[in-house]
User: Fold this.
Amino acid sequence: MATITQRDSGWWQAKVRRKGQSPISQTFEFKEDAIKWARAIEREIDTQTFVSDNTAQRTTVKEVLIRYRDEVLPQLAGGAKPDRSRISRLIDCLGDINLAALDSSHISQYRDKRLLKENAAPQTVKHELGLLNRVLKQCVIDWGIHLPRGIATTNVRKPTLPQGRDRRLLSDEEERLLEVAKKSKSKEIEHIIVIAIETAARRGEIAAMTWKDIDLKKRTWHIPKTKTGVPRTVPLSRRAVATLKSLPRRIDGKVWALKRDDSITQAFERLCKRKRKINGMNITEELFPNLNFHDLRHEGTSRFFERGFNIMEVATITGHRDLRVLRRYTHLRAEDLAKKLNDG
Assistant:
């Protein structure tokens, strides 16, 4: 039975009670709206089509983002550190909105603000929207929170991305890169570069390598925590096995002393740039122009294709779940394909 009462504020509260069902209430500015809402809810309960959105009304976007950060991110590779900063940004802009009110207009305004006012890169904003989409799916699928307006991110246009990077190692760059790495302050970066090329693994996955996950006899490396949350086992080439065998075993079971993602990035960046003083001026010389550590994953992925692996085999090794993304990583050299064509 529904009851309609006027609050001290002048607004009208409608409350519906049914046996076996927790009381459901909603507040309206006009009495007529309260009566219509109550009748609609009673009809849904009677026809067993009612799904309560009380939890969504009581829960803010901030609360589910924090829950996702604390419960889900620790299960991913490296604790999914980039997602933590994305969550903070989403909280700042959308945190006060309750889930029942969240709709595509809120997401679109966030997207436009990031792109137009804050000059964020389209790829950055796409990652932020993708994270919010995963959080809202978690609410519906795993946390049992009904979103009356649906998953708001599904109806929002994603930013148009520029053409993907296609930077690969040129002719003698790998040899020169490893030669520079041998002289580096970091005693590990040379070996890390080899593992990155030979496995096409992500930076965070390499940083988290442990000896208990490596089987040198079977030539495999198990990665229990990945960016996608799906563990995988990577085959190791002879070169990768030889590199790992040459390493000293650490007491803590880790493969590398460089345990942080950004430590690997910083060590790699120091290889690519050399600071010199010319005529009293400090000059930074680009030894390997426009090369970053993630390009080694790109390089390794392309080499798998050049060795004749098919797209599903490569996806199994690299952990790509979206084959369209995998194709973007794959830039085969025309001269290599010509050689393969003519050898046949």
Notes: Residues 173-343 form a domain with the hpI Integrase; Chain A fold (CATH 1.10.443.10). Strands lie at 2-6, 12-18, 21-28, 214-215, 220-223, 232-235, 273-278, 281-286.
